[in-house]
Amino acid sequence: MSTLPPCPKCQSAYTYEDGQLLVCPECAHEWSASAEAPGAGEEAKVIRDAVGNTLQDGDTVSVIKDLKVKGSSLVVKVGTKVKGIRLVDGDHDIDCKIDGIGAMKLKSEFVKKV
Which residues belong to any copy of the Protein YjdM C-terminal domain (predicted)? Predict the structure, then answer.
């Protein structure tokens, strides 16, 4: 009985080892033997806005609450649209550039996808 995992692409049980890789003879898919389950890292990085919509790089969002800019007297007003966001790891998971204020990081809980 083989202890190798089934093919992640077609679920075939006939996988075999070829050096450092595992190979499926039915669909010719190759993957690393030491790799985690496929998609495991992607699922952990799902970032949602205040209403539950999934955010992606390049989305346009709207601020849902007045946000004070730390170390400044500036305020990001409700309804401010932010174009071309970039998702990053950390507590503040949106990296963006706001007109009139500049580059800053936002928390996804204070924005809504437009």
Answer: 47-114
